[in-house]
Design a protein that fits this description.
Shape of chain C: flat
Number of strands of chain C: 2
Low-confidence stretches of chain B: none
Oligomer: heterotrimer
Largest sheet of chain B: none
Low-confidence stretches of chain C: 315-319
Mean pLDDT of chain B: 85
CATH architecture of chain B: Orthogonal Bundle
Mean pLDDT of chain C: 86
Radius of gyration of chain B: 23 Å
Strand content of chain B: under 5%
Distance between the termini of chain C: 24 Å
Radius of gyration of chain C: 24 Å
CATH superfamily of chain B: MetI-like
Helix content of chain C: over 70%
Largest interface: B-C, 46 and 57 residues
Order of helices and strands of chain B: HHHHHHHHHHHH
CATH topology of chain B: MetI-like fold
Shape of chain B: globular
Number of helices of chain B: 12
Chains: A alpha/beta (578), B mainly alpha (287), C mainly alpha (319)
CATH class of chain B: Mainly Alpha
Structural class of chain C: mainly alpha
Number of helices of chain C: 13
Chain lengths: 578, 287, 319
């Protein structure tokens, strides 16, 4: 086999040792080799140590962290190199790209400055030569209009474009290996495909090796030659990317594989909810939720610097959610899916259209706490970030007690306690966790608490706004299974907002595909996902990584940054009775 | 074991732990408690009549009979420092309590209602902020005459924007979090959201700002007395004593200024240390 | 200049005008809020004779409606007619003009000291390891409790009695002599703010040292000093600038304390003296002047921030 450009041999990483003690070991044994021109995937869930190991290679561990074992870059043992030489080795042979390009570019400096900085100060090139090279590189990674981009700042570019800029900048030094740390995790799936296509092109033309760190096993399988699985600080298994399923032996790898089933096979995993829906459809044809001609316009500061632009977040959206049914709304960022959910729950006010729940007009948010409480007994919402969804000062029990007491004001204390215990049992949460604060819970446990809280009101509709997106994939499956169980036992209807078609497929009977505020396609899940009619749906489905997937560049990149209408940053509208 | 014993034991354990881990905090607590005792019992503890002149020699250095020495009128400096504690401490307390309450109310109101209410509140905050505290206090003196009451009230107003800005920003951030949206959807009443969830979230920041504010208020009010606009001689206010000691200082008898100055510095230092430490604890508890 | 900066400039000008207008109303209304007859308030601590009462009524248009009185006052200030001090029996303008120079010099001198030692020690604390950090923390903790008048008496004692290197009284004549005379007053004013700026700088720099874009620069092999200059300090500077305007403006007020302690005849000592003698016309004009200084310096700081960080100029929705 060809030469090894990066080798980690039994690398361990520990936190700084307190006086007299020893630090906590976070990575116990990370062993891997990347050969010249090879793409190696490093896959694991949060806390597996994959990012920490990569940062050790790049010299980005926090101060005081200790590294055991050996790291060799191009044959040089990094622990034996003098600091100045090590800095040069890293600068010239490694290129690193990070998860959040926006955070990893200095917001106050221009793209041109970023592109040329290392060329000038490390490679000693003249400024004008560096600028010409920078423009060529930007062009190579498919950044349109590169000379104009050179004068812009990161705030003017979209995430996908920034990620290309990051990649182009690492190429400036002609590295041997690219360290790619979750580089597409923050991107939409179609943008992810674009970026992966760029990387595939580069690797073909430059024989660039790559260490591809990701939590997304199918993605790693699709873009890498081999995949190393990491769990709790150890590399547990190395698999050829083409035949992971057949060759996996480790129990954790197998669990991970089944949790991250590629789209085409996931349908089999769906619980037989079609039957449920069928029965309900015969009994109660009336929809519990009906949305008609919904429209929402946000005013955003104009790009010119004066006045405001209008940003149409939701445009003529209509759908029905049958009683006990489950409807998924999928779309990429900026599609308006979350805004739609927030209007249904009274967190935003629609500019036009109607929301009807059980024949009642819900278009305007409820006035006053009593009105909101009445609606809360019908519709509840679960949010993406489970930690931020809980008051950090309340224990699990206090949180649930507050919710139960709110909806059962006449219940005695023992009755409330009994109901809280019942809710904990409903979400399969151990009663011993009840006295913990959210910070002492895992992500999955926190999300179970928020689900339990939403069930306290015995709602008939549960709106799930990216409710599993922040969770690890094995945890995602657990929570989705839990939600499916709850739906079957209580008959609650689900309105599920997600960017992830797999998630929707696991839980929903029907799906609405949204793009730029409008609906592109709407129908039963099997029809839409297996026989998509709209081009956009086809493209969405095509950009999901799976075995044998080849990322393609298919559309001109969206060059400008989206107007910032982060709905989660909007204070809750109020003005009800104080 | 009774509950009281249990609690007593726990307090003792916490104190022991804190003393070994954090001697600075213990020192700060000792100073703050000491100053509080002086403020309440100062007059009674004073060995001499603080205002009586020629109780000893003029501008004498510290001795057993006059531990802090005597001033240029032969008054006992220790007695004057003790008697001056209450007037020097009460003003800053009024300033921070009033400004914290007003500022928190204004900041929360602005963040809660947003829109036009926020616009007006923000404008009020900017306006008060534009007039430096010392200037507002001096203006108050020019209107109502010398004395500590008018400057104290003026500073209470002048400190409002600092608190209000902090609380407004904190409240906006907190209200933007999904748990607030969840409470809203649940149908939790506005008052309950505000007082059971929002206010507790803001308390650590408010407490930290209050301790910092106390230090600044103490310095500002002492400065006003030092300028001759606040408490008037022969009152034993610390700022007045520091100013009054200046001739003696140049003549070579620093005690008259130095001892009250030392107490101003120690008090502010102790409160600052305590505030910073409690803030750190609160933040650690949050994470 | 890009659109964001222009927008900030325009927005700031509007805010500036509104704040100035409101502040002038508040300061003007001091006359109305003063207990007793406005004539007495304007006459200050002196007992007015019937002729003086007549003069005050005429000059302040006390027979006109209140809003016209305000317009007369503001109009006067804008056209350089600052009114008359009946206590000093002279034009307010004539009182203020000769005193502005020394106060401005004192404030600038102090600001330079703060910039050098405050920002410098903050950078040291953030970048030179835990021991330096600890040392600066102790120093700034004490500094934060050291008000101007305490530093002033310490310096007076040390230099008047013990060392004698610097004068402890008066403002001096000529530029260099003035600097010499103003050294101790400037130090006494600066100590508290040095500690404050040190803390602010340390916090801002530490925050940026851990910023993700600094990781990018490090992995790219950019030299340390260059990373600090181009990516850490530059990005920390808006936070430092944000408190600079307020601080320098505040110095104009607190300079009163140093002027009092060191016997300097500046704007601050005039303000103090006028307040002590209840000379409202003088206090009003100086207050308004200080508010103008505050508003202008703050606007300058905001514009400087917008030049470094164009995003600071973009208002967010609902903001």
């Amino acid at each position: 086999m060809s030469e090894v450009v990066l080798e980690l041999d039994r690398v361990s990483i520990a936190t700084p040792a307190p006086a007299g003690g020893s630090g906590r070991t976070l990575v116990h044994d990370c062993t891997l080799q990347v050969h010249a021109g090879e793409a190696l995937g490093l896959v694991g869930e949060s806390g597996s140590g994959k990012t920490l190991s990569t940062r050790a290679v790049a010299g980005l561990l926090p101060e005081g962290f200790t590294v055991g074992g050996t790291i060799r870059i191009d044959g040089d043992d990094v622990s034996l190199l003098p600091p100045a030489r090590l800095r040069e080795v890293r600068a010239r042979r490694l290129g690193m790209v990070f998860q959040t390009p926006r955070a990893h570019l200095n917001p106050f400096r221009t793209i041109g400055d970023f592109m040329t900085e290392a060329l000038v100060s490390v490679a000693g090139e003249r400024a004008d030569a560096a600028a010409r090279r920078a423009i060529d590189l930007l062009d190579e990674v498919g950044v349109p209009d590169p000379s104009r981009r050179m004068r812009q700042r990161p705030g003017d570019l979209s995430g996908g474009l920034l990620q290309r800029v990051m990649i182009a900048a690492t190429l400036a030094m002609d590295p041997r290996i690219l360290l790619a740390d979750e580089i597409t995790t923050a991107l939409d799936v179609t943008t992810q495909e674009e970026v992966m296509a760029v990387i595939a092109d580069l690797r073909r033309h430059r024989e660039l090796a790559m260490l591809f760190i990701t939590h997304d096993l199918p993605l790693a399988g699709a873009v890498c030659d081999r995949v190393v699985v990491m769990n709790q600080g150890r590399t547990v298994e190395t698999l050829p990317a083409g035949s992971m399923r057949a060759e996996a032996r480790d129990a954790y790898t197998i669990r991970l594989l089944s949790a991250s089933l590629p789209a085409a096979e996931a349908g089999a995993g769906t619980v037989a909810s079609d039957a449920v829906a069928g029965v309900l459809a015969q009994v109660a044809p009336a929809p519990i939720l009906r949305v008609d001609g919904l429209r929402k316009v946000f005013r955003v500061p104009a790009a010119t610097g004066f006045g405001h632009d209008e940003f149409v977040a939701v445009d003529d959206v209509g759908f029905e959610l049958p009683q006990g049914g489950s409807l998924g709304i999928v779309g990429e960022s900026g599609s308006g899916k979350s805004t739609t959910a927030r209007i249904v729950c009274g967190l935003e006010t629609a500019d036009a259209g109607t929301v009807t729940v059980k024949g009642e007009d819900w278009t305007r948010p409820a006035r006053g706490a009593r009105g909101r409480r009445r609606r809360a007994r019908i519709a509840q919402m679960v949010f993406q970030d489970p930690y931020q969804s809980l008051d950090p000062r309340q224990t699990v029990r206090e949180c649930l007690t507050e919710a139960v007491a709110l909806h059962r004001p006449k219940a005695s204390r023992p009755e409330v306690t009994a109901r809280v215990d019942e809710l904990l049992a409903n979400v399969a949460l151990d009663a011993t966790l009840a006295d913990r604060h959210p910070r002492a819970l895992s992500g999955g446990q926190r999300q179970r608490v928020t689900i339990a809280r939403s069930l306290a009101a015995d709602p008939e509709i549960l709106v799930l706004d990216e409710a599993v997106s922040a969770l690890d994939v094995t945890t995602q499956v657990e929570v989705l299974t839990l939600l499916d169980g709850i739906r079957r036992s209580t008959g609650v209807a689900l309105l599920m907002i997600s960017h992830d078609l797999n998630t929707v497929r696991r839980l929903c009977d029907e799906v609405v595909v949204m793009r730029s505020g409008g609906i592109v396609e709407h129908g039963p899940i099997a029809d839409v996902l297996d026989r998509p009619a709209a081009d956009y749906t086809k493209m969405l489905l095509d950009s999901i990584p799976r075995e044998g997937w080849v990322p393609r560049r298919r559309r001109p990149a969206r060059t400008g940054a989206l107007p910032s209408v982060a709905t989660s940053a909007t204070p809750v509208p109020r003005g009800g009775t104080p | 074991m009774s509950v009281a014993q249990l609690a007593g034991g726990r307090v003792a354990a916490v104190v022991r732990k804190a003393a070994t881990r954090d001697p600075l905090v213990i020192a700060a607590v000792v100073v703050v408690v000491g100053v509080a005792v002086m403020a309440v019992f100062g007059q009674a503890l004073a060995p001499y009549d603080p205002d009586a002149i020629y109780v000893g020699p003029v501008s004498a250095p510290p001795s057993l009979a006059y531990p802090f020495g005597t001033d240029d009128l032969g008054r006992d400096i220790l007695s004057r420092v003790l008697a001056g504690t209450a007037p020097s401490v009460i003003g800053p307390v009024i300033v921070v309590v009033a400004s914290s309450l007003l500022g928190a109310a204004l900041g929360i109101t602005a963040a809660w209602f947003g829109g036009a209410v926020d616009g007006i509140a923000s404008r009020v905050i900017e306006l008060i902020f534009a007039i430096p505290g010392l200037v507002l206090a001096v203006l108050a003196v020019a209107m109502f005459g010398k004395g500590l009451l008018a400057p104290t009230l003026a500073l209470a107003i002048a400190y409002v924007p600092i608190v209000a800005r902090l609380i407004r920003a904190g409240a906006r951030q907190e209200l933007g979090k999904p748990y607030m949206a969840a409470l809203h959807i649940q149908g939790v009443g506005s008052a309950a959201i505000c007082f059971r969830h929002l206010v507790p979230a803001l308390l650590p920041a408010l407490f930290a700002q209050t301790t910092i504010g106390f230090g600044y208020a103490m310095l500002d009010l002492a400065a006003i007395s030092f300028l001759g606009l606040g408490a008037q001689p022969p009152a034993s206010d610390w700022g007045v004593m520091i100013a009054g000691g200046q001739p003696a200082l140049i003549a070579g008898a620093p005690e008259q200024s130095m001892f009250p100055a030392l107490f101003v510095v120690l008090t502010v230092l102790a409160v600052n240390v305590l505030g910073a430490r409690v803030t750190t604890w609160a933040e650690r508890g949050e994470r | 200049m890009n659109a964001g900066v222009v927008r900030t400039l325009a927005g700031k000008l509007g805010e500036l005008a509104l704040t100035l207008f409101l502040a002038s109303v508040v300061i003007f209304s001091a006359v109305l809020l003063t207990p007793g007859d406005p004539v007495a308030a304007l006459a200050g601590g002196i007992r007015p004779t019937p002729e003086l009462i007549e003069a005050i009524r005429a000059q302040h248009h006390l027979d006109d409606p209140v809003w016209q009185q305000y317009l007369h006052w503001v109009g006067g200030v804008l056209t350089g007619d600052l009114g008359t001090s009946f206590v000093y029996k002279t034009d307010v303008a004539a009182l203020i003009a000769p005193r502005i120079g020394v106060t401005v010099l004192l404030v600038l001198y102090t600001a330079v000291l703060i910039a050098i030692f405050g920002i410098g020690s903050g950078v040291v604390a953030a970048t030179r390891g835990p021991r330096a950090d600890r040392a600066v923390l102790i120093g700034t903790s004490i500094g934060m409790a050291m008000p101007t008048f305490v530093v002033a008496i310490l310096l007076i004692w040390v230099f008047a009695r013990v060392l004698g290197w610097f004068p402890v009284y008066g403002a001096g004549e000529g530029f260099l002599d003035s600097l010499y005379h103003l050294t101790l007053p400037a130090i006494s004013l600066a100590v508290l703010y040095i500690a404050f700026f040190s803390r602010i700088t340390r916090g801002a720099v530490v925050g940026q040292l851990h910023a993700e874009h600094v990781d990018t620069a490090r992995v790219r092999g950019i030299p340390r000093s260059q990373i600090f200059r181009r990516h850490v300090f530059l990005n920390a500077s808006p936070q430092i600038l944000a408190v600079s305007g307020v601080t320098v403006a505040g110095l104009f007020a607190t300079s009163a304390i140093a002027e009092q302690a060191f016997g300097i005849g500046g704007l601050g000592s005039l303000l103090t003296e006028a307040a002590a003698r209840k000379d409202l016309p003088v206090v009003q004009v100086i207050s308004l002047l200080l508010v103008v200084v505050f508003v202008v310096l703050n606007a300058v700081a905001d514009i400087a921030i917008a030049v470094i960080d164009p995003d600071s100029a973009k208002p967010r929705r609902n903001a």
